[in-house]
Amino acid sequence: MLTKRNPISIDEAQEKINQVKLPIQTETIPVEEANHRVLATAITSPYAYPHFRRSGVDGFAIRDSDDHDYPKTFKVVGNIPAGETFDGPLGENETARIMTGAFVPDNADKVIMLEKTTAVDNNEQLIKIMGTEKHSNISEIGSEFVQGQELIAADTELNPGGLAILSAFGIREVTVFKRPTVAIITTGSELIQPDEPLQAGKIYNSNGPMIKNLVAESGGEVTRYEQLVDDSDLLKASLQKAIAENDIVITDGAVSVGDFDFVGDAARSADILLFNKIKMRPGSVTTAFVENKTLVMALSGNPGACFTGFYLYVEPVLRRFVHQKTRIQQTTAILAAPYHKTNNFDRVLRCQFQMNSDGLKVYPNGSDQSGALGNLQTTTCLVKIPHSKTPIEVDTEVTTWLLPFK
Ligand SMILES: Nc1nc2c(c(=O)[nH]1)N[C@H]1C(S)=C(S)[C@@H](COP(=O)(O)OP(=O)(O)OC[C@H]3O[C@@H](n4cnc5c(N)ncnc54)[C@H](O)[C@@H]3O)O[C@H]1N2
Ligand code: MOO
């Protein structure tokens, strides 16, 4: 339907998305499956760590009171492999052979490394210690964590190192924020399935696989993925179901002013229309609305606009769902080539960045066309060319968004 839209700036559009209230949903999952998941509550140490005095080296445990007058022969009264304990105290000039990670006898104060000892007449009951050690070579109880100390803070995105910390305490489950569930609906009667032969007027769906993977990389869980022909009833039914069952719905295409731009109509009648026109190219038609408490992000069908719209408006909200900041780093950079086209709207160029001796430089990377996709693999940043009645000169300072996973 041809109705007048009210365009807003990129900043305003981002802010409107940022103001959408998101539900807080948590779930408890096995630690081993929690890589990249975000802790909903802090985890504290259930006990002091290490919880017993551990030897850091292979060697011989001795008492301080015997630690002098080397070389000296000690009586070997025990052998403590890792995993075993030792009963009874060491007596005068007595030692226990001990392995790395093993339980240190209660009254031992130091472990002398194996390299500083020599055998005595092939007699395993005796060992000659040649000299002392600077350090005790013992990890004391609680030397890494005292009981109740915070191990990992709430809102932390876990990584394999974090999983190791939790596993070290035998923690098997963690409470994390649920990943937002996302339905993706791509539209267009021109779209054919990958196994169909190419025909005049038809194209393969290139945005669908891109959006699916961008969502996954940004921490969303794709629960539904569709490729629909331009049919108002079909789209309405699918949109309704997707909205009822998901946290976020991403539609692609059918959002401008054409005869089949059903998503634009759905936006106009939504509970809350956030925006349906942005003063930017590509992606001026990018639309956002809230229906039945679900955020619907309607991206342009044009590949360049779809890519740009995802990074500028969808990635940040997927990250906010799990209490994380966007991974897109907004900064300023120096434009390495002039931009001659004049624009009423800001233009977002697909570029590549390089850190040079004179600072961060951005290089336009091929086509700026909304429908072009040849630069999507190699684009590493998006650059804002401000709307202007005159060309933008080389070396102008420009707002730049550095893209994650690039
Ligand atoms: N009369 C007007 N026409 C157009 C306007 C306008 O303001 N007035 N805006 C233009 C701009 S700007 C854009 S951007 C596009 C936006 O169109 P939609 O987002 O509604 O998308 P579609 O019309 O469905 O498709 C646009 C283009 O993209 C191709 N497409 C669609 N889906 C996919 C996909 N999954 N994978 C690859 N390519 C896809 C589609 O075939 C079209 O070529 O509207 C302009 N028109
Ligand atoms: O909305 Mo279009 O992508 O601006 O050219």
TrEMBL record:
Known EC number: 2.10.1.1
Main EC class the enzyme belongs to: transferase
This protein's UniProt keywords: Magnesium, Metal-binding, Molybdenum, Molybdenum cofactor biosynthesis, Transferase
Keyword Magnesium among UniProt keywords: yes
Cofactor(s) listed in the protein's UniProt record: Mg(2+)
Coiled coil: none
Domain MoaB/Mog positions: 183-320
Pathway(s) where this gene product acts: Cofactor biosynthesis; molybdopterin biosynthesis
Annotated Pfam families: MoCF_biosynth, MoeA_C, MoeA_N
Signal sequence, renumbered to the chain: none
Catalytic activity annotation: adenylyl-molybdopterin + molybdate = Mo-molybdopterin + AMP + H(+)
Family annotation (NCBIfam families): molyb_syn
Role, per record: Catalyzes the insertion of molybdate into adenylated molybdopterin with the concomitant release of AMP.
Entry's family note: Belongs to the MoeA family.
Protein name: Molybdopterin molybdenumtransferase
Organism expressing this protein natively: Secundilactobacillus angelensis
